[in-house]
Amino acid sequence: EELLLQTFRPPHDDNGFEKLSATEIMIKVASNFDFPIGRFRAETMGKMLVKNGFPSIKVNGSKKYKVIRLG
Fold first, then answer.
1. CA distances from 13 to 28, 34, 40, 53, 67 (A)
2. Contact call for residues 67 and 20 (beta carbons, < 8 A)
3. Which of 5, 48, 55, 62 gives the lowest tally of CB atoms within 10 Å of its CB?
4. What does the pLDDT look like over 17-27, one tens digit per residue?
5. pLDDT interval class at 49 (50, 70, 90)
């Protein structure tokens, strides 16, 4: 969860965000910190995103989260 919040933050408005799936977010966090991705599931990442206030939307039937990349 700490690594997630060091990589992304929720948007404060509807400008400048990316729409990424929980899996895409998990891959980016893991690659930023050279962290093995095999220990987590997309469902776990999704729960962390919701807990930390990242809004979700449906894009072509897939759940995506609005995120702003830090750094």
1. 22, 31, 29, 13, 11
2. yes
3. 62
4. 999 999 999 99
5. very high
DSSP 3-state of 7: helix
Integer Cα distance of 54 and 34 in angstroms: 23
Residues facing 57 on adjacent strands: 64
- E strands, the chain, in order: 8-9, 18-20, 56-59, 62-69
For residue 31, give the nearest of 3, 52, 5, 56 by alpha carbon.
3
Q: By the 8 A CB rule, do 52 and 2 touch? A: no
* Cβ neighbourhood burial of 20 (10 Å; 0-12, 13-18, 19+): buried
Spatial distance between the Cα atoms of 43 and 36, rounded to a whole number of angstroms = 16
Find where tokens 């220990």 sit.
Answer: 39
